[in-house]
Amino acid sequence: MVKIETKLDNLDMKILIELDSNSKIPVTQLAKRVRVSREVAKYRLKKLVDSGIIKSFTTMINPARFGFTIYKIYLKIQNLSIEREKELLDYLKKNKKVFWLAKTDGVFDLIAGLYVKNTVEFDEFLSSFTGEFGRQISSRHISNTVYSTPFRKKYLFEKPRESEEILWGGISQKEEIDNMMINILKLIAENSRISIAEICETLNTTAKTVISKIRYMEKRKIILGYKTILNLEKINKENFKAIVYFQNITPEKEKKFKNFCKLNSNIIYFIKTIGEWDVELDIEIKDYKEFNKLLNDIKIQFGDIIKTIDTIYISEEPKGELNIVASL
Fold first, then answer.
1. pTM, whole model, 2 decimals?
2. pLDDT at 326
3. Most buried residue among 6, 229, 250, 285 by CB atoms closer than 10 A?
């Protein structure tokens, strides 16, 4: 892959750090945090977006609060022409249950993440999909996500900082969510920086209503936070997954392993799963050499509980990122 690294100065990094914590931070507050004028902060933020370093500002919406469970399908593909690959990808991209889709290299060729209400709904999807593309599937593997914990992008920081503990997924506990909340979520899901005034104008409502609805959803953990999606190529990073198989595991040892991941600069998701493996780690790191070094460090430090680790390189993400609203 040809890297298109963009030079970031100290102010750019400070802005990205603040946005990593809260992508909807007002420009006035952002300016105070990074100690520049409002005009400079606004200009620099726009420049980061226009240059493509920032791809989007998203809202983390918890699928468990809608009664959804998270499944992933991991595929090895065979006999797939260019035309048939396009048909397969289009099939998955258009399906409302599929929230995330990745083309990969390594132990799998394709991964699809789904929101479903129950195992029957997942089985119906799987039967339909394999009925359509079964001849192109060499092997398939399925995992159920217990929860996913996102971590701060600590590689942006000069000094490591701890991440707040967030559980995306977890126990399915449907909340009372009215139509106004749904409409607000549809507006902020892929644009967390949309103004309250714009939301009010679009939904023909008042600022008081919008603010109270958002605060309610934050309090009830329907909204978990606000993220910034970066173009990794432009900041000299690549996207990997580590598929971890445990042995001799105990709750105490798993907690110690998770804390290691939480403190590591390049691990950005800890995903607890039920299936053939136990944990997935999403990793943003310089290159495969650094990725392999990290895995070796993990194996040395946690050799007593790690049976093996499979590796995946994510080459493309045709669909994402974690948007529950499209599934409703």
1. 0.91
2. 66
3. 285
